[in-house]
């Protein structure tokens, strides 16, 4: 770490942060008597705070974003060069990096042919919701407007996306919400809602169909799902689930919107999480890993059929998608995304993600053998979770305070991990691991060795 960060002058930065900055997802009362943490430098998978302490970052920037690691000069150079040439123009016109990235990205997404640029993952999902609602008015007299979403899934922070939010603690106090969003059950077999069933995947799909029939298929325009539920507990879908969802969408003419804000651009070992399951979505939203946090960018990909629906009546002045996203016109995002994609390809990071993900899951399985508090381990690629329980037989969730104590103990040992947090009442009990795609075997082993020590200390 650069020693200049440790100068006495840096105390002014801490003071300014404490006095002026409102941090995300943070209760600020403790900062009246203690310093906020400031991350000042990053290289590879390691970051340093204002005290010079080194941490192994196993959550890729705290929210599953820095997929190719810190300190990538080639991405910074690409952004700098683009900004000097042309930094911004409204998205009603094109740009060189916007055109080039769209071509390269969509080549990785068979069936998708259009890319809409916007500001954030929340906004990308809002765009999809607006498209569904507009099509409902244009083609169905406004009736086919409902959007299904899943318990435990998360789609963003706006009132619109919270209306499709399956995490009640994230939603609390922000209602009333927008009408027309309908919840379907989660698909976590470890927490089966149906008791012991021979085919949990099929039962979960049947539960969605029950909601469709209850609401009326002619009222439902789309279903929005994460390929792997992220903040709701790292929930991998049961066998046959996605195939069943696809069949329901075809049967009832429902658009399939897959939220890849977390899983997209390599997190699960493929470019997109849905590509593990052979489904063909109508819309795919993405953000976080698209440029690994080197510039702000989010996108919504659609099929050509969906795109054509907004130009099939050019004489109607309201027929096109009447939407704008101010910073969707920034060129830094697609410039960074092009170089981010090149790094993933040239360094074989999808393959590395698969290999290191298998190592991580193997290590977590060993932790389950050693610690009775580990009830279930699950994941895909470098996106894994360990659900902690007070009792394996009853599967009673571990005390949330103890789960957070494990996170804090790992932090004190120099390893940053995550956990479900203020999301699902009574079930904020899953440790979350999402190292950068550049992770090496020693990084994975250091991560799980540290968790092993923390579990032993907190749970005995």
From TrEMBL:
It holds the Pfam family Aminotran_3. The keyword Metal-binding does not apply. Its cofactor is pyridoxal 5'-phosphate. One of its GO terms (molecular function) is pyridoxal phosphate binding. Coiled coil: none annotated. Keywords: Aminotransferase, Pyridoxal phosphate, Transferase. It comes from the Bacteria. Belongs to the class-III pyridoxal-phosphate-dependent aminotransferase family. This is Aspartate aminotransferase family protein.
């Amino acid at each position: 770490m650069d020693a200049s960060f440790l100068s006495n002058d840096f105390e002014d930065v801490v003071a300014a942060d404490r006095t002026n900055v409102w941090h995300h997802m943070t209760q600020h009362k403790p900062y009246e008597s203690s310093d906020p943490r400031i991350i000042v430098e990053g290289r590879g998978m390691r970051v340093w705070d204002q005290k010079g302490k080194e941490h192994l970052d196993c959550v890729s920037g705290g929210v599953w974003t820095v997929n190719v690691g810190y300190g990538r000069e080639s991405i910074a150079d690409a952004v700098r060069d683009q900004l000097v040439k042309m930094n911004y123009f409204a998205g009603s016109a094109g740009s060189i990096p916007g055109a080039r990235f769209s071509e390269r990205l969509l080549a990785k997404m068979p069936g998708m042919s259009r890319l809409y640029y916007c500001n954030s993952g929340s906004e990308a999902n809002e765009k999809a919701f607006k498209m569904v609602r507009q099509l409902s008015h244009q083609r169905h007299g406004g009736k086919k407007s409902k959007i299904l979403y899943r318990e435990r899934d998360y789609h963003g922070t706006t009132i619109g996306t919270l209306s499709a939010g399956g995490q009640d603690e994230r939603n609390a106090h922000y209602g009333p919400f927008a009408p027309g969003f309908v919840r379907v059950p989660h698909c976590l077999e470890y927490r089966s809602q149906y008791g012991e069933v021979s085919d949990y995947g099929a039962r979960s799909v049947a539960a969605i169909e029950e909601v469709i029939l209850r609401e009326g298929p002619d009222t439902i325009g789309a279903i929005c799902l994460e390929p792997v539920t992220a903040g709701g507990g790292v929930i991998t879908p049961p066998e046959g689930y996605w195939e069943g969802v696809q069949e329901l969408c075809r049967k009832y003419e429902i658009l399939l919107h897959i939220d890849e804000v977390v899983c997209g651009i390599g997190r699960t070992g493929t470019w997109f999480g849905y590509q593990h399951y052979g489904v063909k979505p109508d819309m795919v939203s993405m953000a976080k890993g698209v440029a690994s946090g080197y510039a702000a960018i989010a996108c919504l990909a659609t099929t050509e059929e969906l795109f054509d629906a907004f130009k099939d009546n050019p004489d109607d002045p309201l027929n096109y998608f009447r939407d704008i996203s101010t910073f969707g016109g920034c060129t830094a995002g697609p410039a960074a995304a092009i170089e981010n994609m090149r790094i993933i390809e040239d360094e074989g990071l999808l393959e590395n993600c698969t290999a290191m993900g298998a190592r991580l899951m193997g290590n977590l399985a060993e932790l389950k053998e050693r610690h009775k508090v580990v009830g279930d381990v699950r994941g895909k690629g470098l996106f894994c979770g360990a659900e902690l329980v007070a009792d394996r037989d009853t599967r009673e969730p571990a005390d949330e305070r103890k789960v957070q104590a494990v996170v804090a103990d790992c932090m004190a040992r120099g390893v940053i991990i995550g956990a479900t947090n203020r999301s699902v009442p009574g079930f904020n009990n899953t440790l979350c691991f999402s190292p950068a795609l550049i992770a090496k075997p020693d990084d994975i082993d250091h991560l799980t060795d540290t968790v092993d020590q923390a579990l032993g200390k907190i749970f005995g």
